[in-house]
Amino acid sequence: NAYQIRRMTRTEKILTITRRLIILSSLGLLGVMIVFGLTLFRGNRFMVSWACFGCGLVGGFVSIQQRIKNFGDEELDLLSQSWFQILLIPVYGGIFSLVLYLGFLSSIVEGPLFPHFAGPAFSQPIPSTQDVAAFFDRTYPAAGSDLAKLLFWSFIAGFSARFVPQILDRAQTRDAKGSNDGVDAK
């Protein structure tokens, strides 16, 4: 089997990868939808997080599909031989979308192009576990347009492998300079 895969033509490798992308993206989205549905019916816990992760996952799959024709032979060999390697890039996209979501919640990333959130205030200067649980359970985009912005940027975080690391680099540089402003769209 490994010998046959090595002998595949470039087109056959791209078709193999594309089929695997379709299967894995369908299974991944189904899994996210199931977990999202369970959170919806069991108390809304982390519902927004799952929506972000799902958009980041889709962004990662779309990114691979868009770039697949430009991959070198070694990359095509690796992806055509491994289901795990195909899944790894979108999972990174989902993780990056969650990191970006935390950046939005913490106001590290802010500006008119980014979403705003409404949620409960902490009841005391030192937050309790109930405050933290309420924050994650009841903090949602402030308006419909903010939800759309969140989902859009979550997709972009999954699609562009360098987007979130660049934001983190900017935030770190800004912090080193002593500025308290969030990273904006400039």
Q: SSE order in H/E notation?
A: HHHHHEHEHH
Q: Helix/strand-derived class?
A: mainly alpha
What is the molecular shape?
Answer: globular
Instruction: Give the amount of beta strand, in percent.
Output: under 5%
User: So what's the oligomer here?
Assistant: single chain
Low-confidence segments: none
The average pLDDT is 84
State the total count of DSSP E strands: 2
Radius of gyration based on Cα positions: 19 Å
Number of helices: 8
Helical percent range? Answer: over 70%
Strand order of the largest sheet: 1-2
How would a textbook summarize the main sheet?
Answer: 2 strands, antiparallel
Distance from N terminus to C terminus (CA atoms, Å) equals: 50 Å
